[in-house]
Each structure stands twice: as C-alpha cells, then as structure tokens.
Amino acid sequence: MRDNLLDVENLSMRFGGLLAIDDLSFSAKKDNITSIIGPNGAGKTTVFNCLTGFYKATSGSMFLNKDNKKLDLKKFSDFKVAQKAGVARTFQNIRLFPQMSVLENMMVAQHNKLMIASGFSILGLLNAPSFLKKEKEAVEISKYWLDIINLTNRADDNAGDLPYGDQRKLEIVRAMCINPHLLCLDEPAAGLNAKESAELNKLLLFIKNEKKTGILLIEHDMSVVMGISDHVVVLNYGKKIFEGTAKETKNSPEVIEAYLGTED
Amino acid sequence: MEYFLQQLINGLTLGSVYGLIAIGYTMVYGIIGMINFAHGDIFMVGAFVALISFILFALTSIALPIVLILTLLIAMVFTACYGWTVEKLAYKPLRKSFRLAPLISALGMSIVLQNYVQAAQGARIKTLQPVIQGGFSFFEDGNFTVTLSYLQIFIVIVTIVLMAIFTLFITRTALGRAQRACEQDRTMTALMGINVDRTISMTFIIGSSLASVAGMMFVMYYGVIDFYIGFLAGIKAFTAAVLGGIGSIPGAMLGGLLIGLIETFWSGYISIEYKDIAAFSTLVIVLIFFPTGFLGKPDIEKV
Amino acid sequence: MNKNFFQSSIKDSLFTGLIALALFGPIVGLRTVAVNEALVVQPKWLVVGLIVLACTIGRFLINIYTFKKEQRRGEPSSISKIITNFLDTKGAQIALGAVIFSVIFPFMPFADRYWMDIAIMMMTYIMLGWGLNIVIGLAGLLDLGYVAFYAVGAYSYALFAIHFGWSFWICLPLAGLFAGLFGILLGFPVLRLRGDYLAIVTLAFGEMIRILLLNWYDLTKGPDGLTGIPRPSFFGLPFKRYPDEGVETFHTFFGLEYSPMQRIIFLYYLILILALITNFFTIKIRKLPVGRAWEALREDEIACKSLGVNPRNTKLTAFAVGAMFGGFAGSFFATRQAFISPESFTFIESAIIVAIVVLGGMGSQTGVVLSTIFLIGLIEVFRDFESYRMVAFGGAMVLIMVFRPKGILATRKPTITMRKEK
Description:
heterotrimer; A: alpha/beta; Rossmann fold; 4-stranded antiparallel beta sheet; 10 strands; 25% strand; B: mainly alpha; two-stranded antiparallel sheet; two-stranded antiparallel ribbon; 4 strands; 73% helix
C-alpha cells in the first residue's frame, strides 16, 4: 500500500439514473505507467474527471500518496487538484490556448509560482529584479521541455497553428510544468500515426524514468498501451473487469470478451 | 384581505403579459442558444402597432369584438415581420461566430429599434383611451373594493387560448417537432433533411407574435406607452424565462406569472419607486442561486 | 448573368420591398401625433414609399454585387487587407504619433472651446474603453453594467469633496479605490456565471445603481443631482477670474491674462494623463502572470483550472481593476462638470463603451482609440439628428459584428517571446 501513488477505493459516479462508474477499486504504483482501457463509454474519462476534481464522485474515495502524506482527492475541487494536490491532466479534445503562443501556454502553466514571485503583481509592476529572475527561470524551464519535443523553434507561434501531433505533445509538456506527482493523460495517442505514437512512447518513458512522475493513461491505441504500460486496468460498463500487467491483459478471456464478444 | 386579492388579480394579469414575452426569450435561447436582447423592443413595436390600429379603428364604426380580433392579427403579422427581419439581418450571419458576437449584435438591434420608433413616432409618451371598460366589483361594503375588470379577464383568456394553440402546435405539428429537434441537435436535424433556417425563422416569428400580443395587452391595460417600455419589460420577462427554466415554455409562463406577482405585491405593500429594483434583484438572485429555474434542465458541461 | 439569376433577383428584391412595406408602413407611415390631448394618425406615405423603393433597389444592387463577387472567387478583399496590414505593422508608430498629437493638441490653432470639449469627451471615453478592455478584451468577461463603476466613482468623489472638503488629489484615488471595492462586491457572486448570464446580471446591476442614485434622495439628491462639486486646482492654485482675499490664482501666479481656457486645458491634460496611465498599466499587466491568466481564462477556463489557475480570484482581479479605472474616470467627470445627476449614468453609456471595446478589437489598445474616434465622432457629428444618430450607432454595431466580428484591429501579439523581437 505504501508505495502506491494512487489508491482508488469503491469509487462510484452516478448521473441521475445512469451509473457511470460502479464500485471501482484499483491502484497505481509510483514510477509506473498505468493504463486504463476499455470499450467506448466504459467510464474512463469519468474516472479522470473524478480524480481531477471536475466531477464530485457520488461515493468512494481516491487517495494520493504525496511526500509521505496521504491526500484525499475528494477534498480538492476544481483547480486545487492541480495547484495543491499536484495532479495534472490532458484532455481528450486537446485544450490548449490556441490564440496564445506556445511559450505563453507554457508560462500560464507556471502561473502560481510566478504570481507569488510577482508579489501579486505589485513587484511585477515595479520590474523588481527578483521577479524578472523568476520569470527568466520559467522561460528556461519552458525551453527545456520544448527542446525535448523539438518545438523550440516554434515557441512564438500560436499554439492553434501547430500540427495536430505537436499540439498533443505540447499539451503534455505544458502539464509537466506544474511539476505534478501524477500525470493523467486522456487518449494522448488519438489521431497520431505510427511514427508519432512511437515518439509519444519515448516522451512518456522519459517522464516516467527521468522525472519520476507517475502516469495514468486512458488509451485505445494498443501499441502505446502494450508498449509502455507497467500496469493495466480494464473497465467495461463502469466496472473493473481486469487488472494486471500488459501481457496478462492481452491474454485475459474477460478482456477479449469485452472487446470482441464471445463465440455463440 | 381585499387589498391582497386585488394585488393577486393585478399580479396575475401583469404576469400573463410578462409570460407571453418570456416565451419568446426561452424559445430563442432553446434553439440557438443566445439571449435575444432585442426581444423586449419587439414587444414595444407590437404595442405601437396595436396603438395605431386602435386609433384608426376608432375612426370607423366597426364593432368592438371585431376591432379586438383584427388588431390582434394586425399586431401579430406586422410585429412578426420585425422579428423575422431582425433574425435575418443581425443573428443569422453570426451563427458560427464566437459567443459574444450575436449578443453585441442584438444590443445594437435593440438600440436601433428603440431609436427608430422614437424617430418615427416622436419621443413623447403616447396615450390610448380605454378600449375595454368596466368590470366586476366585489366586497363593496368594506373599505376597499376589489375590481376584476373585463380587460383583465380578456387578457387572461387570450393568454390561455394562445398558450393552448401554441402548445398544440409545438407538440402536434411537424414544424413543432422540427423545432424541438433543432433545440436538441441542430446539425443532426439538418442532416435529416429539415430546413433549419426556416425552423429558426419560424421560432422568431412565433416569439415575436406572442410578444406583440403582450404589447397590445400592455397598451390597453396601462393606456400609456413610450419607446422605452421594451427595455424594462424585456429584463423582467427574461428574468421570468430564467426563473421558469430557460428552454421550458410552460416554465416561461410560470415564471412570468411569478414575476408579475412579485412586482405587484412589492409595489402594493412595500414601495412603488423601487419596484424595478425588486425586479432586477429577483433577476440577480435567480441567476446566482437558481440558474436552472423551476422547470429547466440542468446544464452539464462536458469536459 | 443569365436570365434565371435575373428573375430570382427581381423576385427577391420585390419580396424585400414587401417586407420593407410591412416594417415601415405602420411605424413610419402612420405617425401618431397628439392633437388636443388625443392622438391622431398622420400618414406619411411619401416617406414610406421612398424607403420601400430604396430597399427594393438596394437589395437588387446587393444581389448583383454578391453575384459578381462570387465570380471573382479566390481574390480576397484587397482594400480591407491593405488597411489591416497597415494597421498591424505600423501600430506602434501610429500609437506614438497619436500620443504626440494629443499632447500638442490644445495648442493647435483650431483648438477652441468646442474642440477642446470634444477632445476631453473623447479622451474620457477612451479611458473608459481602456478600462473596460481589461474586463472584456483581456479577461473575456462581458460586463454590460460598466457605467455603474463610472457612477460610483463620480458620486463618491463628489460626496468626499463636498462633505469632507478633501482636495482633488485625495478624492480621486479614494473614489477609484471605492469603485474597485465595489467591483469586488459585485463580482464576487456573479463571476462564475456563464457569458450571457453574466452580461444580463451586470446590466441589471448597472440599472440598479442608477435607480438607487435616483431615489436615495438623502444621499444623492436624486434627480436634482449633486451641485457645487469643487473644481480642480493646479496644485493649489485655483482657476478663478476673481481670486479670494490673499489667494494666488493660476493666472496671477504665472503672470497670464485670465482665460476660461486655462482650466479647460488643465482638465484636458488631466484626462490625458489619467488615460495614459490606464494604457501603460494595461500594457504592463498583460506581461505579468495575472494578465496572461486573464487571457488564458478567456481562451479556455477548463484548461486553466487543470493547470491550477484560480479562476474566481483571477476574474475578480480583472473586474476590480476595470472598476477602479472606471471610478477614476468617474471622478474626473465629476470634477469637470461640477454637477452630476443620474441622467448621465444610463444603460446606453454602458452599451457605448462595450461597443467601443468590441468594435476596436478585443484586447487591442489602439483599436479602442480608433473605435472611440469613429463611434463618438459619429454621435457628435450627427448631434443635431437626435434619434437618427442613435439608429446609425446601433446599426454600426450590427454591421461591424456581421462583417468584421473581430473588430478593427484583430491581431494579437504575444506578451513574451523566446526570440528577441527585431
């Protein structure tokens, strides 16, 4: 239990008459990439929305182990999940700031620490050297991540003008700028071709190994899931039907039935 | 007790007028997701058309019931033209634009309508001699006489009849079905072969017609109108639409009655100068605490 | 053009004429006039006939123009592109030129009382536009009740000055802070509302303030307004023709002939400085984290939340800062007029300022200046035409939204770049 990054226990989410998540329990270890897979409508994004404070779970609990402290994620609403609990996420339908530049997107992610550095704008208005220094550091951090995904030469272009694959990568490194403990990615490989998926795998492995950030991943692309997952959780109709390693998942009869059905 | 009854009667009458206007707001919001800022001024135009009609008919010796019916139809037809034109000019081109664009355009249209009527008809208030007079009196022996005027009965009956016709239209006819379909999913409706533009135009025409009836009732009831009544009535009717649940037509009428009662009771018991503040405060309270209103559907944003 | 097009075009134009007849027939054609306490109808068929004719022919011409335009498909509208490019590239130089012009304006030969008054009025609207630009343009919050803060600033300045006798230089910042506080109070419950609803609520607040000012006689003297608001002085030197005993006035101190223009020119520079402060503040704060958060919030609030940005506090800051500048402008208004009444703070003022911001191009400072000159100029030039000019104003709002919804100056430059700008 102690080296688990995330413990989800008996999570349920009900929308009126629809039970989207039904008594879900699973764990994700530190330094692991855990994938949540399942047919469409299984409730995967709903799990994310509960974890990241966008929905209020009907019942159950989610515990994040951060710095040897056990945080009850249900107590963090909205933006506090990212700000205080250190859980970052990306979205199924990419949510960048399209009319702002790539660099500006990265800077917004570093908002909270820059706000403090700017003395809630007072120091900023006075061009205080302490603020300027912190701002420079933030630009350096942005450059670091943009170098990794080869977008530094497009740092001043509008985020909305980037090709689709680059937008996906940008959303991920932008999320990394808040120094998260847990990174939740919602279908990061959607719409990527084989080459781009391979690059995505590289990026995620880099994040896991070098940055020691736990990754929770919703995916349909099996090359990504099987390629880099340490742990897989399979959902169907809001229920967990299997949990294990990638290899075990591939061979599990329940999983095969959920995706392909049984022989009559 | 008598005083209370009188306020109740007055409030329900006023509420019917607001309800008719509110339906226009709620229909437009339901189908294209925007607040038609100019709708209150459509109501005002309806009042003016009715006024002109009454003045002209007064020169003839046509019987009163026929005058009423004809004025009703005249107001509806001409005001519907205004609603249709406003939609075609100011809203249709902006259907794909960002959220604020149709709102600003509507604001502009509202300014145009108000000042256009002012320029064409003169800035001074217009008065109308009472068209329907007399009524029932109750409790005459006490200090206060309760009156239920024929006009008030007329207003409520017309409102009920229109609501019935309208509800039948929405639920039974093909056009009504098309409208409900457009409210749910415009793209899909278009793919089913339904003329979305015509459905939206129809919505505006119906909404404007109902608002014009409200205008006719208003000018008969108060006997005084000017080019500014649309602004105030519009805000109150919009409050009514939200209170009843935006997108719900019975809700709009319910909300209208409630707002009418709130305004009348406030004027009657507390203060008449601040009655508009009561209406605005209701709006603020409703939007902050009851944004989905009584009969509305909750709005869950997909993340 | 083939025959089919011609036929359908004619049908279309006739239909337009018919609609025009329905629209203008009753309202324009049958004017109600009061004769001996009763209303009679005066027919104006000639006017209606002309309007209908104009609509019919106009529609026909538009059809031809659209048809011809489609034939030349692929050629972007060249004139509009030239203007946009010019404005975008030379923006900074235009801005500098404008500032220089406004500084030397009072000394130009044609700058008489009339033009100075116009200039002061324009500058006030520009300042209000820049203030509201923070709320609408940067943070994307549609505030239709901005006049409320203008009013709070004006009335609190007046009340501070009249009842406590503090000097202009104390009352002005106080009034602005008061307005800012008001912005926080007003904003707190409503800023989580969706765009349209926020718009209506702020409109309601604006009207409530006006009704309150109108009816709270003890405090505000209601419709009578507040008079005797002290006029500003040049750092202690009053602008009076006949000074009080032993008091130096502006003109005696500087050894000049007394002229009423001296006070006007001082007022002009005052509003110019206030406006420029608003402008510099905005430019600076866009580059700070809070300004960037405003723009990010405008783009995508959910993404902001996922990055740990506190949407409520961020929105409140924009609202309060915008309110504060509105309050400063209100203080200036009070001291310039020496008399204020609720009549100056109607909804139409809010609508004008919103139009200025949106038409200028959301977030664009230069755009605000251009649209103010255009819109206020429109209102002023046609001052004799009363209601017609407001019809033109509303019409301009609709036309610009339909044809150029992004406003005059639509492009946005990033606030921080990796590469140094050339």
